[in-house]
Amino acid sequence: MITSLIVAVAKNNVIGKDNDLIWRLPKDMKFFKETTLNHHIITGRKNYISIPKKFRPLPNRTNIVLTRQTDFKEEDCIIANSLEDAIIYAKNYNETELFIIGGGQIYKEALDKGFIDRMYITHVNEDFDGDTFFPTIDTEKWKKVSEIENPSDEKHAHSYSFTVYEKK
């Protein structure tokens, strides 16, 4: 099983503010959906709750919510109390590619523990004010394998690129 993460990151590593996305990039949302569809996804509880109620759990994916709260319950979701347990759950259900979708603490833990094999990063080509950050990418450990640049347009206020990294 490949363990991946998927995230949109500003030039200054900001990924969110006040438990919400900062930018609106419809093509990025489409990319996220197409990439994670029919896979297991792991999300932290705060990140999960930040998803508008009408969109959660994310459809056509096995939603695993990571929380330290032992009494947390959410219909149609798997609740895990450790990142390791969440990964084992997906592996036990023959997942081919598991996606970690945030938030910031979950990304950091997954990277620090060496769980990530591949990163799908939408680089938003601007700095933003935020309170949640993605770790700096260590180019000694990660190799860029693809990049598709997207200019700003009438629906996308910021230019951005879809970039895939694999562990060296």
Describe this structure in words.
The chain is an alpha/beta fold. The protein has a single domain (2-96, 105-155), classed as 3-Layer(aba) Sandwich (Dihydrofolate Reductase, subunit A). It contains four helices and ten strands, in the order E-E-H-E-H-E-E-H-E-H-E-E-E-E. The strands form two sheets. An eight-stranded mixed β-sheet has the order 5-4-3-6-1-7-10-9, sandwiched between helices. Strands 2-8 form a two-stranded antiparallel sheet. Helix 2 links the parallel strand 3 (40-44) and strand 4. The radius of gyration is 15 Å and the shape is globular. The protein starts with a strand and ends with a strand.
Stretches with pLDDT under 50, minimum 5 residues: none
pLDDT average, as an integer? 96
CATH topology: Dihydrofolate Reductase, subunit A
Assign the structural class, choosing from mainly alpha, mainly beta, alpha/beta, alpha+beta, or little secondary structure: alpha/beta
Highest CATH level, the class: Alpha Beta
CATH homologous superfamily? Answer: Dihydrofolate Reductase, subunit A
Strand order, sheet with most strands = 5-4-3-6-1-7-10-9
Write down how many β-strands occur, each being a DSSP E stretch of 2 or more residues.
10
What string gives the helices and strands in order? EEHEHEEHEHEEEE
Give the strand content: 25-35%
How large is the radius of gyration? 15 Å
Taking the alpha carbons of the first and last residues, their distance comes to: 17 Å
| CATH architectural group | 3-Layer(aba) Sandwich
